[in-house]
Design goal:
Radius of gyration: 19 Å
Structural class: alpha/beta
Largest sheet: 9 strands, mixed
CATH superfamily: NAD(P)-binding Rossmann-like Domain
Strand content: 25-35%
Bound molecules: flavin-adenine dinucleotide
CATH topology: Rossmann fold
Distance between the termini: 35 Å
Number of helices: 7
Helix content: 10-25%
CATH class: Alpha Beta
Order of helices and strands: EHEHEEEHEHEHEEEEEHEEEH
Amino acid sequence: MVETVPDVIVLGAGVIGLTTGICLAEAGLRVLIRTEALPPRTTSAAAAALVGPLSYPPGNPASAWERVSLVEFTALAELPGTGVRMRRGMLAARPGSPQPPPGFEHTAGVRPADPADLPPGFEYGIWATLPLADMPVYLAYLTDRLAAAGGRVDVAPAGSLDEVAQDAPLMANCTGVGARDLVPDPEVHPVRGQHVIVENPGLDEFFLEAPIGSAWASYFPHGEHVVLGGIATPDDWNLAADPAIAREIQNRCAEIEPRLRSARVLGHRVGLRPARPTVRLEIEEIGSARCVHNYGHGGVGVSMSWGCAREAAAMLVAGTASGPRTPVHPSPVEPG
Ligand SMILES: Cc1cc2nc3c(=O)[nH]c(=O)nc-3n(C[C@H](O)[C@H](O)[C@H](O)COP(=O)(O)OP(=O)(O)OC[C@H]3O[C@@H](n4cnc5c(N)ncnc54)[C@H](O)[C@@H]3O)c2cc1C
């Protein structure tokens, strides 16, 4: 349990804050996470969440973040209670769509789909076996793992970074779209997503329409339920599920997999992707504290979480005064 004065205050209890907190706590630091919303009420809880495929070529910093994360999630899929499983599925594109971005060939086990396997209306596809995280379960696993390493989560929103800098010598800013106001960083903006959760009619493979525009078909089976997507609406802050959008999502998915048409709806999830032209992973001195910023992961935050968290923790502990990173665009192709 954390003593009165923590070594590090992490802001945010989404997948980025929890993973960063774990890396720091497991390195022996006393970690306190301060958050506005607890994990089940974050954007992270709304994610599908597919990890990979690798979308950046080797040499790009984002490629390293993806690779580290893919290895971690693959290992977590072997453990009970993490909510992570390896799943086979298809990523497919309609005619006229650019094909999936470069780098896909770097993911082990990815192979082109036989045209006969493609759903009607699609002209290109790949098969991949990738980690798939049931996010509410995975976030609970991360929370328990943080606690096991001595970390604690408090609901205590930060009014400013300066204020937090007075309470600990080290800080990690993992506030997702909240960074827009907190930093403030006008480069961060929300891209709203919505999922429909249905009873699983017997599916064990995922499907993701790629590349991603503003609306697409995707479904991700997690045992008893399936997560259906998806949409991406820039600059929309509305966290309420829209019933009309939910119907459109289920209809689009049913065109690919007819068993989904009458699947019973169990619930809805809405999240705000923290979009930014580049992921911000860098050190800033704030008052007497050293802060590592780790936010702006757009639609691929789960897929990059372990790579970014390990690097953020190393930068913070080593005191690396990294300058702005080589621009790294969050992949336009969200895994889910
Ligand atoms: C519908 C949907 C599907 C997605 N599918 C995938 C997928 O398949 N694969 C994938 O890799 N990614 C996916 N994503 C993207 C992924 O969910 C995000 O990139 C990721 O969740 C961002 O995590 P985060 O921790 O930065 O932000 P969040 O989960 O939003 O967490 C931010 C935290 O900061 C806290 N906070 C904010 N302001 C303050 C403050 N002032 N003080 C204290 N705390 C504060 C919040 O309360 C919250 O706890 C998806 C996103 C959506 C919406």
